[in-house]
Design a protein that fits this description.
By secondary structure, the chain is an all-alpha fold. It has a domain of 56 residues. The chain is built from 3 helices and no strands. Helix 1 runs antiparallel to helix 3. It is elongated, with a radius of gyration of 35 Å. The two termini are 65 Å apart. The model has no long low-confidence stretch (mean pLDDT 75).
């Protein structure tokens, strides 16, 4: 099923790009006015009116293929089993945060509070800011 979806998606993208190219190549309705006064359109590859017929028919065929691919992708996209509930109900619940330390323990570079009965020596503050810039 996954390979089929990939093939249909590739066909849809290729037809879209081909349609863009063909539409940009085609002349507008006002361009035919110059051909009526002999501007040399008869010397083109498809003849005087062959180019408009060929390009417009090719564009119509590519548009039909594009719409069929779009309908097929929509059909296969809706074949999944229906899921009940809300998207928010299926969200992953993060574990609760650890209890926050209070007071001096929140300040970076300070030592943890001393335990009862033990004497702790004050830790040197961590180097930050200008202390991290090397000197010459």
């Amino acid at each position: 099923m996954n390979v089929l979806l990939t093939i249909i998606l590739a066909a849809q993208m290729l037809t879209a790009l081909a349609m863009i190219g063909l539409i940009l190549i085609q002349h507008g309705k006002g361009a035919d006015m110059g051909a009526a006064f002999g501007s040399g359109a008869s010397g083109s590859l498809f003849g005087a009116s062959g180019s408009a017929n060929f390009l417009s028919r090719t564009t119509a065929v590519l548009a039909a293929v594009f719409f069929i691919c779009t309908l097929a992708l929509a059909y296969f996209g809706n074949l999944r089993a229906p899921e009940s509930g809300s998207v928010l109900e299926r969200a992953v619940v993060a574990p609760p945060p650890a209890p926050a330390a209070s007071g001096a323990a929140q300040i970076p570079g300070t030592a943890a509070p001393a335990q009862s009965g033990a004497t702790a020596t004050p830790a040197a503050p961590a180097a930050s800011g200008a202390a991290q810039i090397p000197t010459k």
